[in-house]
Amino acid sequence: MCLSIPARVVEIDGNMAKVDVGGMLREISVDLCPDVALGEYVLVHAGFAIQRVDEEEARQALDLLKKLADSYEAY
After folding, report:
1. CA separation for the pair 30, 14 (Å, rounded)
2. Where are the domains positioned within the chain?
3. Which of 21, 32, 56, 58 could form a cystine bridge with 41, CB 3.0-4.6 A?
């Protein structure tokens, strides 16, 4: 099973980009999504942007992931 995380693109430099994942910046490859633009959301898996997603879909996924994380903190 694979898990991809939505992230907002904040900087692009050639085939690399910096993305914001819940306030943390990560550097990823955009080789699989070469036409991605600043401000767009992408799904990130294993250091690669694998697909663009719209902002609403990204926010819903991030909210769900936060709820899951919060439920583990209760233990």
Report:
1. 8
2. 5-73
3. 58
Q: pTM higher than 0.70 for the full model?
A: yes
**Topology annotation, domain 5-73:** SH3 type barrels. (2.30.30)
DSSP type of residue 54:
-
Q: What is the per-residue pLDDT for 48?
A: 97
How many contiguous H segments (helices) and E segments (strands) does the chain have? Answer: 1, 5
| Sign of the CA dihedral running 29, 8, 14, 26 | negative
Q: Is the pLDDT of residue 75 over 70?
A: no
Specify the higher pLDDT residue, 55 or 72. Answer: 55
